[in-house]
Amino acid sequence: MNLSSSKPKLLIVEDDPDLRTQMKWALAQDYEIFLAEDRGGALEIVKREKTPVVTLDLGLPPHPGGTEEGFLCLSEIIEQDGLVKVVVITGQGERENALKSVGQGAYDFFSKPIQVDELKVVLNRAFYLSNLEREHRELRRRISEESFEDMLGTSTEMQEVFTPIRKVATTDASVLITGESGTGKELVARAIHRRSSRKGGPFVVINCGAIPENLLESELFGHEKGSFTGAHIQRKGRIESANGGTLFLDEIGELPLLLQVKILRFLQEQKVERIGGREEILVDTRVLAATNMDLKQAIREGRFREDLYYRIGVVVVDLPPLRKREGDVLLLANALLQRYASENKKKISGFTQQALRALEAHNWPGNVRELENRVRRAVIMAEGSKIAPEDLELVSSFKRYEGHGLREAREALERDFIQRAISKNKGNITHVAAELGISRPTLYELMEKLGIEKDRG
Ligand SMILES: Nc1ncnc2c1ncn2[C@@H]1O[C@H](COP(=O)(O)OP(=O)(O)OP(=O)(O)O)[C@@H](O)[C@H]1O
Ligand SMILES: [Mg+2]
Prior knowledge:
This protein is of the alpha/beta class and about 450 residues long. Helix content is about 50%, strand content about 15%. About 30% of the residues are buried. Bound molecules: adenosine-5'-triphosphate and magnesium ion. Adenosine-5'-triphosphate binds next to helix 7 and helix 15.
């Protein structure tokens, strides 16, 4: 067994053989020593051994009298690994060089003749700092680059979302998760459940927008046998089914007003009454809710109860749209590419330059779900080893309008723009006009001219 390998690695770059040996002897007890006599050798060792600390003599061959070679070596080492601590060893009275080397990124300098004890102090501090920095870098990498639960995101926008999720998960507070379609609201709800003390209990989803109004009450609260036509057997509602766990009320903005009252009461009293039932049942269910609707607007329009809003939104997690997450599109695209390529057993190594640019330029109205769909499709369609913009159906706008005259191209662009805004704003003309920066009458005029129908957005 090589005991020395547990010592920190130190590289000594020194062309004078006597001095080299002398330093080695003096320091071998504390460090695992590597020796180099020129720039090439030094760089090779830094690359191979990842030595965190290096002592560097500036006068190296082929110009042992000058400092050129030493400075070159310094910058190459730092370029190789920015966290390497280089202690420059200078001749006596070379203050200028010493300062210059620190200016170029050296950690510290030391003048000959070498006092071993002093040098050891400098080196110890260099190793200590290097460790700290590496730990810090590793921590940052783990926090940001890897995923949080199933969620990828290195952007500050997403990091700012992860923090409240971590904090709120372990409590029993209700959480309102908002964000455009496809931004990951359900993913967040599942993450909160998984990180809570309720993780052993059920996670029950109910999509308030997908269940017909007349069935929704019974779905949520359950019913007794014979309580209404068709109620042949007694049935528990989803609130009750989620007992001991979490209920995820998806699209809570679609909840009819009457049921909003009932849900509010449940949140206040933790009790439910089945339809046609006579007793109140105590239920221990945590409620998470999501919406892509502007609930404040809905409150102003009388479609959503303000008291429920404040009860459910004790904590609000607002997911930013993908286009606002700096750097995340490419991170997600690459992760998804790897996943789908291995699922489909296809050898695809990445995206072409044009595809990367197209991914960054796209506006992502459908957010992460749209990205998933485009990459999944591209993996299936791709013929080469790299994904092209055509595979993603993201052909640059220039190509799309090629072959048109200027007027037609402009109209086509206007049509695309308006249609996209209409679908993004779910047909709300006031919002569309505001987004496009034009008045409503102008918008109507344009739609008429371009033959766009509102509900076909
Ligand atoms: N940060 C992320 N990292 C990885 N995958 C994500 C991320 N956010 C969302 N996804 C994926 O994108 C898809 C859409 O996410 P999800 O269903 O949670 O969105 P949503 O906001 O609930 O959408 P909708 O409003 O349409 O219901 C899912 O397949 C999810 O796994
Ligand atoms: Mg959803």
